[in-house]
Design brief:
- This protein has 13 helices and 15 strands.
- The chain is globular, with a radius of gyration of 22 Å.
- The protein has a seven-stranded mixed β-sheet, with helices on both faces. Strands 1-2-3-13 form a four-stranded mixed β-sheet. It has a four-stranded antiparallel β-sheet with strand order 11-12-15-14, covered by helices on one side.
- It starts with 32 loop residues before the first helix and ends with a helix.
- With 461 residues, the protein is an alpha/beta fold.
- Helix 4 packs parallel to helix 10, helix 11 runs parallel beside helix 13 and helix 12 crosses helix 13.
């Protein structure tokens, strides 16, 4: 992949000229984004926020068109759901083929082979040599809740330890584990008991791995009796918390601590899994084998499905009927997931993720030095799961959420979809489909550069 990009003059998003056979929900040109914003404000709960004031009409691979026919390069990927891109042909074909047979029976009533086949595949992909089993559900938060249920049943203990900045879902139990108040936890407590929080290593806050591990040991002394802790849950790369990887030595230490105290280690791979970091699961980079892994997002190329993978004896701790859900492991989503996994394998998307990560790092470093000196404080992540963090200056490293917000807005005007993240809202994360072409990647990076320059100029006026 080349790391050079020709300078082009960008215009506002252009009307689509592509001849892609997709039936849009609303025919392009029949309604405006502003009209749909108005309808949404009247009909949809305020708490369901949307990052962009545009409405999708159709999408293909790493491109999206809104209802007005404007084209966008998609660096958000439906919040890391589309590692195989919008409407991957293999995924769509598998889902349609399944729909010709049946769309739902409920696995708890009349089971079906796609569920079993996907469980077999997940068990084979997950790290570790011990026998594994899987549970399929519908959402990431549901997967995390079930992982906690399984851990409690397997250990006979109630406690769960999570980390500052971690994100594990929006249900009440998962919010208890999520380590960020606004907007997720604001005004909706109280949260379940026996959930404890340990410090996460943070360069910004001066918290080293040793500091974090000391904090965990202090937690054992002050609040969380280790003999009553069922599980420690951690994202190998923080998602909403800022795309910060867990230092490998931290993961390895957690494994040792869990083994010492009979605690189960849960790797929350919902955002980092299925090739995003250059391996099937981000935890593989550390060499650590967790007891349970939660999965969702890019597992099925856009279809809603999630799951828990774990050691067989742990997964079997819950009695028959104690796990499941009406829609859990929907057959259409299972078929899509098997096809998405096959596409990742056949198209070499793990290696592609690694190459994309290197390309983005090189280009962002060049752009930061040239366009925004001393404002791009950090470029971090694993593989193509990368974030750029903006600050007011390098001396104080004060988070600059306003600049970040401005870059996102200027990028959207120019035809690039970006999302922010981080405890202070000052990081931009890259979630572009791994199937995006080099040309699309470089087009998006060029738009990012223009958006950053415009945001800096605006801030300086």
């Amino acid at each position: 992949m080349t790391t050079t990009t020709k300078k082009k003059t960008r215009k506002a998003p252009t009307k689509s000229k592509a001849n892609i056979s997709i039936v849009p929900t609303v025919e392009e040109g029949k309604v405006t984004n502003a009209e749909l914003v108005s309808r949404r404000d009247a009909a949809v709960a305020r708490g369901v926020a949307s990052a962009a004031p545009i409405y999708a009409s159709r999408a293909e691979n790493s491109e999206l068109w809104d209802v007005e026919g404007n084209r966008y390069v998609d660096f958000a990927g439906g919040i890391a759901v589309l590692n195989t891109g919008h409407r991957h042909p293999k995924v769509i074909a598998a889902a349609k083929a399944q729909e010709d047979h049946y769309t739902h029976t409920s696995f708890q009533v009349v089971p079906y082979e796609p569920y079993v086949a996907l469980a077999e595949k997940l068990n084979a992909l997950a790290p570790g040599d011990r026998a594994k089993k899987s549970l399929l559900v519908t959402t990431g938060a549901e997967a995390v809740e079930n992982a906690v249920k399984i851990a409690r049943a397997a250990t006979g203990r109630p406690g769960v330890i999570a980390f500052t900045g971690g994100y594990h879902g929006r249900t009440l139990l998962t919010l208890g584990m999520t380590g960020k108040v606004s907007p997720y936890k604001k005004d909706v407590g109280p949260f379940p008991s026996d959930i404890f929080r340990a410090p996460f290593p943070s360069l910004r806050d001066g918290i080293t791995v040793d500091d974090a591990l000391t904090g965990l040991q202090n937690l054992f002394l002050t609040d969380a009796q280790p003999e009553r802790v069922a599980a420690i849950i951690i994202e190998p790369v923080l998602g909403e918390g800022g795309y910060t990887p867990v230092p490998f030595e931290m993961m390895q230490a957690l494994r040792e601590i869990c083994d010492t105290h009979g605690i189960l280690l849960i790797a929350d791979e919902i955002q980092a899994g299925f090739g995003r970091t250059g391996t099937w699961f981000a935890v593989e980079h550390s060499g650590v084998v967790p007891d349970l892994i939660t999965v969702a997002k890019s597992m099925a190329g856009g279809y809603p499905i999630a799951g828990v993978i774990g050691r067989a004896e742990i997964m079997d701790a819950v009695i028959p009927g104690g796990l499941g859900g009406t829609y859990g492991g929907n057959p259409v989503a299972c078929a899509a997931a098997l096809a998405a996994i096959e596409a990742i394998e056949e198209e070499g998307l793990l290696a592609r993720s690694t190459a994309l990560g290197e390309h983005f790092r090189t280009r962002f470093a060049e752009i930061g030095a040239r366009v925004a000196p001393f404002r791009m404080w950090d470029i971090r992540g694993l593989g193509a799961m990368l974030a750029v963090e903006f600050v007011t200056d390098f001396e104080t490293a004060t988070p600059d959420a306003e600049l970040t917000k401005s870059v996102v807005a200027h990028a959207l005007k120019r035809g690039l979809i970006l999302l922010a993240c981080g405890m202070h809202g000052n990081a931009l994360r890259i979630m572009v489909p791994l199937t995006a072409s080099d040309a699309i990647i470089d087009e998006g990076i060029a738009i990012f550069e223009e958006a950053l320059a415009a945001a800096i100029a605006e801030q300086n006026t």
